[in-house]
Design a protein that fits this description.
The protein is an alpha/beta fold and about 230 residues long. Helices cover about 45% and strands about 10% of the residues. It has two domains: about 120 residues, 3-Layer(aba) Sandwich (Rossmann fold); about 70 residues, Helicase, Ruva Protein, domain 3. Strand 2, helix 3 and strand 3 form a beta-alpha-beta unit.
Length: about 230
């Protein structure tokens, strides 16, 4: 049940944590190849694996699953600095994840990291929003190495996965919806991972403001508002 009878008009976006364990990952035809690649470790055909797909597609979730299994060091491509400081973060780890590797616009840093990991017999998992050809890599040595990587695409969700994503994110926020809401949303909303996260967050806020569970009329109103904002942007 939705236990928010004492909610006030002050609505706060309180932080919550998505489950990042293997059992929390929702397998579907959209992500099966990427999941199987992660689970195939350490029998990878190359030192590196690239997982790429749209925002919210679960690529970071998969990277964390692999990092837990391999005891890899987790690095953020948005924050990874230039050598040598960047490699101090690797520490004693043999394996490494660079999340949002396509945001690291420093070819030499990524090349150095690749060589460091591969040179000690380790593996490197890179996540990105697009395929390798869209990263803008200009250093030939780095490009040639990454072209040998195992590359797996995560596609936009199908009907089954989209419904499951909505249910999971509602459960993560400890929200309960009335019958028919998830089916309505899945058949009328934008078919993307980002939209699922955005709409569930809006439903959470709307239910707090209204001080009532998530009903079909409330879901219709939230979805209409979301589509209006999307159309304007």
């Amino acid at each position: 049940m939705l236990n928010r009878q004492h909610a006030t008009q002050l609505v706060l976006d309180l932080p919550f944590e998505d489950g990042d364990r293997l059992e929390d990952f929702l397998r579907s035809p959209a992500n099966a190849e990427a999941l199987d690649a992660v689970l195939a470790w350490p029998a990878w055909p190359a030192p590196a694996l690239i997982l790429w797909g749209p925002t919210g597609s679960g690529r970071t979730h998969l990277a964390r699953i692999w990092a837990e299994r391999s005891r890899a060091r987790l690095l953020d491509g948005n924050q990874l600095g230039a050598a040598p400081e960047a490699f101090e973060e690797l520490g004693a780890a043999q394996h490494c994840v660079v999340d949002d590797a396509d945001q690291l616009h420093d070819d030499r840093t990524l090349l150095h990291l690749y060589n460091l990991v591969a040179g000690q017999g380790g593996h490197l998992l890179l996540t990105a929003s697009g395929p390798l050809g869209a990263w803008g890599i200009v250093l030939p040595d780095l490009l040639s190495r990454l072209k040998t990587a195992w590359s797996c695409r995560i596609r936009q969700p199908d009907d089954i996965l989209l419904s499951a994503l909505l249910v999971k994110q509602l459960q993560d926020r400890q929200l309960t919806v009335l019958p028919g809401v998830v089916a309505y949303l899945a058949s009328h909303m934008e078919r993307s991972f980002a939209a699922a996260r955005r709409i569930v967050r809006a439903l959470d806020r709307a239910s707090l403001c209204a001080r009532r569970p998530i009903t079909l009329p409330l879901a219709r109103a939230v979805l209409a508002a979301d589509q209006s904002i999307t159309d304007e942007s």
